[in-house]
Amino acid sequence: MTGLEKMKSQILDEAKATADSKIQEAENQAKEILDTATQEAAKAADGISQKSAAEIANYKERVASSIDLKKRTEILKAKQEVIAEVLEKAYGGRNLFFCSRPGENAGRICSKNRGGSESQGRKPEVWRRR
Question: Is the Cβ–Cβ distance between 108 and 128 less than 8 Å?
Protein backbone atom coordinates (compact mmCIF):
# COMPACT_ATOMS: atom_id res chain seq x y z
CA MET A 1 0.00 0.00 0.00
CA THR A 2 1.17 3.36 -0.87
CA GLY A 3 0.84 6.48 1.21
CA LEU A 4 -2.07 7.74 -0.88
CA GLU A 5 -3.98 4.51 -0.47
CA LYS A 6 -3.35 4.59 3.28
CA MET A 7 -4.74 8.12 3.50
CA LYS A 8 -7.69 7.16 1.36
CA SER A 9 -8.34 4.10 3.55
CA GLN A 10 -7.99 6.16 6.71
CA ILE A 11 -10.46 8.80 5.43
CA LEU A 12 -12.94 6.09 4.44
CA ASP A 13 -12.62 4.42 7.87
CA GLU A 14 -13.19 7.73 9.63
CA ALA A 15 -16.17 8.50 7.38
CA LYS A 16 -17.62 5.05 8.08
CA ALA A 17 -17.15 5.47 11.84
CA THR A 18 -18.78 8.92 11.70
CA ALA A 19 -21.66 7.58 9.60
CA ASP A 20 -22.15 4.65 11.99
CA SER A 21 -22.23 6.99 15.00
CA LYS A 22 -24.71 9.30 13.21
CA ILE A 23 -26.91 6.30 12.33
CA GLN A 24 -26.77 5.08 15.94
CA GLU A 25 -27.64 8.58 17.19
CA ALA A 26 -30.59 8.81 14.76
CA GLU A 27 -31.84 5.39 15.85
CA ASN A 28 -31.65 6.45 19.51
CA GLN A 29 -33.56 9.66 18.78
CA ALA A 30 -36.18 7.70 16.84
CA LYS A 31 -36.56 5.29 19.76
CA GLU A 32 -36.97 8.19 22.22
CA ILE A 33 -39.60 9.83 19.98
CA LEU A 34 -41.44 6.53 19.63
CA ASP A 35 -41.35 5.91 23.40
CA THR A 36 -42.64 9.43 24.10
CA ALA A 37 -45.41 9.06 21.54
CA THR A 38 -46.37 5.66 22.99
CA GLN A 39 -46.55 7.12 26.51
CA GLU A 40 -48.67 10.07 25.32
CA ALA A 41 -50.98 7.73 23.43
CA ALA A 42 -51.37 5.54 26.53
CA LYS A 43 -52.22 8.61 28.64
CA ALA A 44 -54.75 9.78 26.04
CA ALA A 45 -56.31 6.31 25.84
CA ASP A 46 -56.53 6.15 29.64
CA GLY A 47 -58.20 9.58 29.74
CA ILE A 48 -60.68 8.58 27.05
CA SER A 49 -61.39 5.32 28.87
CA GLN A 50 -62.05 7.13 32.16
CA LYS A 51 -64.29 9.70 30.45
CA SER A 52 -66.20 6.91 28.71
CA ALA A 53 -66.65 5.02 31.98
CA ALA A 54 -67.96 8.18 33.66
CA GLU A 55 -70.40 8.79 30.81
CA ILE A 56 -71.61 5.19 30.98
CA ALA A 57 -72.13 5.47 34.74
CA ASN A 58 -74.02 8.75 34.27
CA TYR A 59 -76.20 7.21 31.56
CA LYS A 60 -76.97 4.17 33.74
CA GLU A 61 -77.88 6.49 36.60
CA ARG A 62 -80.23 8.51 34.38
CA VAL A 63 -81.87 5.34 33.07
CA ALA A 64 -82.36 4.03 36.61
CA SER A 65 -83.80 7.38 37.67
CA SER A 66 -86.15 7.38 34.69
CA ILE A 67 -87.29 3.84 35.46
CA ASP A 68 -87.84 4.76 39.12
CA LEU A 69 -89.86 7.83 38.14
CA LYS A 70 -91.99 5.79 35.75
CA LYS A 71 -92.52 3.16 38.45
CA ARG A 72 -93.55 5.77 41.03
CA THR A 73 -95.90 7.39 38.48
CA GLU A 74 -97.58 4.06 37.77
CA ILE A 75 -97.92 3.32 41.49
CA LEU A 76 -99.46 6.75 42.06
CA LYS A 77 -101.86 6.22 39.15
CA ALA A 78 -102.92 2.85 40.57
CA LYS A 79 -103.44 4.39 44.01
CA GLN A 80 -105.54 7.17 42.49
CA GLU A 81 -107.67 4.61 40.67
CA VAL A 82 -108.21 2.64 43.89
CA ILE A 83 -109.14 5.81 45.79
CA ALA A 84 -111.50 6.87 43.02
CA GLU A 85 -113.19 3.45 43.08
CA VAL A 86 -113.58 3.57 46.87
CA LEU A 87 -115.01 7.09 46.73
CA GLU A 88 -117.31 6.16 43.87
CA LYS A 89 -118.71 3.28 45.89
CA ALA A 90 -118.92 5.45 49.01
CA TYR A 91 -120.71 8.34 47.30
CA GLY A 92 -123.27 6.41 45.35
CA GLY A 93 -121.69 5.89 41.97
CA ARG A 94 -120.88 9.52 41.13
CA ASN A 95 -118.38 9.90 38.32
CA LEU A 96 -115.29 10.95 40.32
CA PHE A 97 -111.82 11.68 38.98
CA PHE A 98 -108.60 13.41 39.97
CA CYS A 99 -108.37 16.98 38.71
CA SER A 100 -105.23 17.11 36.65
CA ARG A 101 -105.48 20.61 35.23
CA PRO A 102 -103.11 23.17 36.70
CA GLY A 103 -104.68 25.50 39.21
CA GLU A 104 -106.32 25.39 42.58
CA ASN A 105 -108.09 22.04 41.98
CA ALA A 106 -105.04 20.15 40.71
CA GLY A 107 -104.62 16.84 42.52
CA ARG A 108 -107.99 17.00 44.22
CA ILE A 109 -110.82 14.58 43.70
CA CYS A 110 -113.49 16.05 41.43
CA SER A 111 -116.88 14.97 40.22
CA LYS A 112 -118.28 15.58 36.75
CA ASN A 113 -121.39 17.71 36.73
CA ARG A 114 -124.76 16.34 35.77
CA GLY A 115 -124.30 17.62 32.22
CA GLY A 116 -121.45 15.20 31.72
CA SER A 117 -118.15 17.01 31.53
CA GLU A 118 -116.13 20.02 32.46
CA SER A 119 -115.63 20.92 28.83
CA GLN A 120 -119.23 22.20 28.61
CA GLY A 121 -118.23 25.30 30.55
CA ARG A 122 -119.22 24.07 33.99
CA LYS A 123 -116.73 23.80 36.79
CA PRO A 124 -116.42 20.43 38.51
CA GLU A 125 -117.45 19.90 42.09
CA VAL A 126 -114.40 19.55 44.25
CA TRP A 127 -114.19 17.20 47.21
CA ARG A 128 -112.12 18.75 49.93
CA ARG A 129 -111.03 17.46 53.27
CA ARG A 130 -113.00 18.77 56.16
Answer: yes
